[in-house]
Amino acid sequence: GTATMLTDGTDGILYDFYDTNALINGIKTVFDSQEKAEYFSVNAISHASCTHNRTLNTAAMLEVYKTIMEA
Fold first, then answer.
1. How does pLDDT run across 24-40, given as a tens digit for each residue?
2. Quick one: DSSP state of residue 3?
3. pTM listed for this prediction
């Protein structure tokens, strides 16, 4: 889920789905602070480059397929 894809306060803001005030406050936080928006952006890009690393993910998937084929 989303909570495993970002760290609250580091590369985004998490809020309870039903808490619309938290959503509003999160949006305001980003739009009211250029520094906070840049902070989240830099951290999110860094996190995504690790999480979605094409080379590492390809190697991991090949290992999965290799294991399946050997079973």
1. 999 999 999 999 999 99
2. G
3. 0.72
In terms of Cβ atoms closer than 10 Å to its own Cβ (0-12, 13-18, 19+), residue 60 is exposed
Residue stretches of the chain with pLDDT short of 70: none
The closest of 28, 26, 30, 53 to 40, measured between CA atoms, is: 30
| HEC per residue, 34-54 | HHHHHHHHHHHHHHHHHHCCH
How many Å apart are CA 26 and CA 13, to the nearest integer?
6
Inter-residue contact 36 to 43 (CB < 8 Å): no
* Token representation of residue 17: 């789905």
Residues 6+ apart with CB under 8 A from 41: none
Whether 37 and 30 have beta carbons less than 8 Å apart is answered as: yes
